[in-house]
Specification:
alpha+beta; 43% helix
Length: 83
């Protein structure tokens, strides 16, 4: 995503709204956006924020016999010594 794309600009407005250093009206005047739209962006950002910390990424794991394979990060366990 480009740094000057609409989504990037909207996210900056949402971050400013989350900071609560200015009122929605002040932010609306500053960014030329209706305060209710800023409230919607703030709400959406706060609702989606916890999803950023869910680790659902996939990575390649090296195995001694097969080379590499893909696995989910939470499936990549530290091997134990079988006895």
């Amino acid at each position: 995503m480009a740094a000057n794309s609409p989504a990037s600009a909207w996210s900056r407005v949402a971050i400013e709204a989350i900071r609560v250093e200015k009122t929605l009206s002040q932010l609306g005047s500053q960014f030329k956006v209706h305060p209710m739209q800023i409230a919607k962006w703030r709400k959406a950002a706060l609702e989606q924020l916890p999803e950023l910390f869910v680790d659902g990424r996939v990575r390649a794991v090296a195995t001694p016999t097969t080379g590499t394979r893909s696995c989910r990060l939470h499936d990549a366990r530290i091997p134990t010594n079988p006895k």
